[in-house]
Amino acid sequence: MPGRELKPGELLLVAEAFTGGFYVAVSRGLFVPMLAYSGYSLESISWVALPAGLGGIALSAAVFRRSEAVTSRFRVLLLSSHLLERVLWTTPPFLIQWLAAEAAVYLLGNMFSLLTSLLLGVLIFSYFPSEREVVRVSVQRSAAGAAASLLGALFMTYLPTVAEPPTVYYVLYITAFAVGLMSTVTLLLIPRMPARVEEPLQPGDLQEAAMVKGVNAYLVLVLMNAGGNLVGLAWSPLLRGLNAPLYVPLALSLTGNLGALLGSFAWKSYRAYLAAMGVNTLLTALIPFVRVPEAHPLLSLSTSFTFMGANLLGMQLFAQLSRRLGRVKASVFSTSAGYLGLLLSTALSIAVRMPPGAALLAAASFKLLAVVVAMLAIPETAVVPERRVYEYSRLVYSTSLYGYTFTVQASREFLKAMLEMLATVALVTLIYLVYRLTALLAGV
């Protein structure tokens, strides 16, 4: 891209993150508290979230294997996915009485969200020529998104004090949709967005070495996100059990976004990223033992502040690997980790019917595993000799590859069965409607 176009493009990408940050903070931050305070249990909420994790993994695998499907129609896919995601995320408060419908919307909304995030990652990797610029713009976008999320969380925390459910849910989601549309308009204004993206080819040995490092970094992000998602699922039910008013779980989002904003600028080196992840693990383990609801927003600030260490580690590593892995593969790694983490966390909470406190301790265990992998298998954060890092990284890579292959196949089979079930339900409903219509016409 010419130098004169770099600055406007950078500013517009940051503006897109800012307006999108408000929309995401409200639409995602309200979802679990809305279900929990509507009477749904942790297990029920996990069933809503499970298909989204499976769908995200299946979509990520498909894009990873056939990257040309998104690079050949890049601009059209990005803009249409960006808009459709926002439309879908307007509907949750209107479906609160139908949990199956919530699960379907959550699945579709998250799949479009994944595709949008993936394509935005490809755009950033393509638009900026150097690793330093990619990291700088990504940090700026992260900070802008966190600042807007803070505003969204403030709005989301204040509104329940002046309006009652379900009215407050309708107002919040419609407002989020309106602001989310502004981010789509901002994206339209980016100068010379490529209609298609060309992927440079790399020698096989370079690709293999990059893949080993990429898979290990991916595993760290997956485990951290599994812990983070389990915290998100269990924290509101825990507070409900402590008889906390609705504004307390909503305040978690407010202080969490403030922590993410501060964390974007606090962690500056690989060692700092590792230290932040370690502290985050300890803080997560403390959550179920804090019995005063009003103290939990401060815990949310601290956990979000330290969780940014994991995000920045992934951002740095995949910016470094994007030229060797390819822009699409690097973007798939960095964006799909949250969905595999979501799958792990929801599957665990369904398979093992844990109370919220036990789920939070399980979340800390996921994060501890991530810290161990980072200490042993990633050269930049390892605390063992270089030769050992190579051995551990190969071992982790091989193990992770088998596990991921199994997960992808299971996800495909589950989604296939789910679609067949939905088709059967639709057919039975249609037959019933035809029968009723015939009966009415016949005067029976």
TrEMBL record:
Transmembrane segments: 12-32, 44-64, 106-130, 142-161, 167-190, 217-238, 244-265, 272-292, 298-318, 330-352, 358-378, 417-435
Keywords: Membrane, Transmembrane, Transmembrane helix
Protein name: MFS transporter
Entry keyword Transmembrane: yes
Source species: Thermofilum pendens
